[in-house]
Amino acid sequence: MATLQPQSWLSRIGGYHPRLIEAALAMNENDLPRAEPLLRAHLKEDPFDVQAIRMFAELAGRIGRFRDAENLLRRALELAPGFTAARANLALLLHRQNRPEEALEELDRVRDEEPDDPGHNTLRAAVAGRIGAFDEALALYETILARGEGQAPIWLSYGHTLKTVGRLEDGIAAYRKAIALRPHFGEAWWSIANLKTAQFDAQDLAEMNAGLTAAQASMEDRFHLHFALGKALDDGAHPAAAFEHYAIGNALRREALPYEAAETTAAVDRAIALFDAAFFERRSGLGCPDSDPIFILGMPRAGSTLVEQILSSHSQVEGTMELPDIPAIVNRLGREGSYLDVLADLDGDRLRQLGDSYLSSTRIQRRETKPLFIDKLPNNWLHVGLILLILPNARIIDARRHPLDCGYSNFRQHFARGQAFAYDLADIGHYYADYVRLMDHFDRIMPGRIHRVIHERLLDDPEQEICALLSTLDLPFEAACLNFASNPRAVRTASSEQVRRPINRSGEGQWRPVSDKIEPLKQALGPVLELYPQVPKSWHASHG
After folding, report:
1. For a tag site, which of 106, 162, 405, 445 has the least CB within 10 Å?
2. What pTM did the predictor assign?
């Protein structure tokens, strides 16, 4: 949850107890094991020191103890209601926990106390963007930048918001302003590459390569630069050289995001064992009966944004974003014990309450009056059982793409968060196979309950596939769904510019020039690759 600049703690505690100063030094060096006992000892002697409480809250936030961090910040504000810095930290913490309404309440008070602080306004712009209030977010960024307070990260965030609302050229200009301020700023270079439609020239390539060796470049800068260089070389018809940059970028990213494929496989095994037809029959009629949500799930980079764009062009469907609310429910249940064991023991009242809480927490994302809305978080495939229990009338769409096209696209994509499997070819293959295996299980115990959109079929015959999609959702056909590229809605994913173009095959077969380099992906996919889009019959015997 840290937002403070280097040395910021030292600048705030002049004249304080030497132990607190030593803790501040440790915090600035991110030496949390050294800082924690110092802060504990200091607070034991002086439990009312709000600066120390706030510092301890930041420490808790850095290691993911968000509940402890929140309690500490609220204690600091109880002791010192005018402690604006602590209130701003609380707003940030709430934002990161997907509690935007509460974050905005705190930011309203912060704005009253310090209306012109660029840090507070930047956070407010980020929260506004999270809930789709893009006009407010843009206005806040523009006010900050007009005052000359535009550091490179603010230009980057401004560029993200411009890109999201479809102002592509303005977005690129903002990204390049960030690069002008920080030439080795890898995330800004990648943001241009991630538009998928922008092109780099020879000067850009030279500057990105120079950034890789810049003394100020962090590991984060470097892996972003490798992904950006991979994209640039792919566009320049140098796929082998591009692959090498992707491989380095993925290796660097994986160092910070360890992933165990066996854990996902085990989770799928447990889900298959628990969720059989009898399990759902015993719970028939339970949960929240509302049918507002449409879940689009599956692998990232499988065409889910295209499906969302098509559906959100319908007069009855609102597109939102990749909502974190289902994983938040999973985490909440996981704190009560083994997640699936807890889920199996929930009674009808609790199942309905969870469905109601999902609808309540997502309401802030619904900015139109359309009766249906989309939750497009791909990873929700792992939580289909939960969705069917708490929202039994929700629509579920599985967006599926050829495993090599999809797998290599994941390898070429740097994700901001949430896709730790995507930084190793074998991990991607195992993840895809586990996803198909779980979806096949639900197809067998609930035939027709989940509608599948095969990406290649959608490219071959858009009208037929779109009509079938609308029919399964009980929606009348509307021509706007065929003309989805004209939809002016904001799109908050890596495919934002791609889905503003008519259906095309530009993403097909990009793995072929490096086919010899992606053997780990092919091996991990196993029979899923050979049989696509069908599933191996052997699974039916071993898991039926």
Report:
1. 445
2. 0.86
